[in-house]
């Protein structure tokens, strides 16, 4: 049995999983790891789950997403999980029956394998699996996946009502001369949608902010409102880009040796997935 989780790590959506002791343990290649303070989670689903999902015919995914999932390399992340002195506590009795009886719990970091996904991959994957708890026999959706489906639903509602505006984001560079900009579509949240965002923030499961990179010395901050806002903006931006982009028009503009003004650059960037100003 596997439980598939979605979390936010360094502004990116990442997928990772837990496995029960009945599932085949993930194989670790190379020499045995040296002793270290942060141990590998005994429930780590390993590096093969995305390949399993990409090969699953019952999940209707575009071929380019399947190919991307098959080729993804796992990254090492720390999952900050409720733990005993011996091990993390499983998120569900489906993984370990002792999950509901643990005592003397504290928060600790455990090494896991995770997969970073771009916004389009996340949206296509969530659209394919729906909001049901069982993805396919033997693989269950965790609370993070189910929650993000609700955020995506709100983003779709905002896009359908045309409640979004274009914006420009400046990325902080090491040198002022290397400043880069990205065009983004931002949601406009008003009226009853403000309450919906607040309700989502209050209901956000901690697993969404449970990961950190291996250099972290403390658990990540749980900022519910900021996390929901970031997800909402991500989905609104990719949805509008997907409907606004015109490949032929974009190619014609991209073939120009230069732009006569910054406005044309901005319009082109608003039609791209990454939003970077050319």
Topology:
Elements: E1 2-9, E2 12-19, H1 49-54, H2 63-71, E3 75-83, E4 106-117, H3 119-129, E5 134-136, E6 139-141, H4 143-160, E7 164-171, E8 180-187, H5 192-203, E9 211-212, H6 224-244, H7 247-254, H8 262-269
Parallel strand pairs: 1-6
Antiparallel strand pairs: 1-2, 2-4, 3-4, 3-9, 5-6, 7-8
Number of helices: 8
Number of strands: 9
Rg on CA atoms, Å:
21 Å
Which structural class is indicated by helix and strand composition?
A: alpha+beta
What sequence of helices (H) and strands (E) makes up the elements?
Answer: EEHHEEHEEHEEHEHHH
Main sheet record: 7 strands, mixed
Oligomer: single chain
Distance between the termini: 46 Å
Low-confidence stretches: 30-35
**How helical, in percent, are the residues?**
25-40%
Shape, per Cα inertia axes: globular
Mean pLDDT: 82
Quote the beta fraction: 15-25%
Across the major sheet, the strand order is: 5-6-1-2-4-3-9
């Amino acid at each position: 049995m596997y439980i598939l989780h979605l979390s936010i790590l360094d502004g990116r959506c990442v997928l990772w999983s837990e496995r029960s002791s009945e599932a085949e343990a993930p194989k670790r290649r190379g020499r045995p790891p040296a002793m270290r303070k942060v141990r590998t989670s005994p429930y780590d689903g390993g590096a093969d789950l995305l390949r399993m999902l990409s090969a699953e015919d019952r999940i209707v995914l575009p071929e380019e997403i399947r190919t991307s999932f098959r080729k993804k390399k796992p990254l090492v992340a720390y999952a900050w999980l409720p733990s005993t002195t011996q091990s993390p506590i499983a998120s569900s009795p489906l993984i370990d029956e002792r999950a509901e009886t643990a005592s003397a719990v504290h928060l600790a970091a455990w090494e896991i394998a995770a997969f970073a996904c771009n916004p389009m991959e996340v949206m296509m994957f969530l659209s394919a699996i729906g909001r049901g708890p069982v993805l396919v026999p033997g693989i269950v959706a965790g609370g993070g996946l189910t929650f993000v489906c609700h955020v995506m639903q709100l983003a779709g509602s905002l896009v359908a009502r045309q409640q979004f505006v274009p914006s420009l984001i400046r990325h902080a560079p090491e040198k002022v001369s290397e400043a880069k900009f990205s065009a983004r579509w931002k949601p406009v949240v008003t009226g009853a949608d403000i309450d919906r965002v607040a309700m989502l923030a209050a209901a956000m499961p901690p697993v969404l902010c449970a990961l950190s990179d291996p250099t972290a010395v403390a658990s990540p901050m749980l900022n519910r409102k900021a996390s929901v806002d970031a997800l909402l903006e991500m989905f609104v931006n990719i949805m509008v880009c997907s409907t606004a982009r015109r490949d032929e028009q974009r190619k014609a503009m991209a073939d120009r040796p230069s732009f006569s003004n910054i406005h044309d650059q901005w319009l082109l960037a608003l039609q791209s997935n990454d939003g970077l100003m050319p």
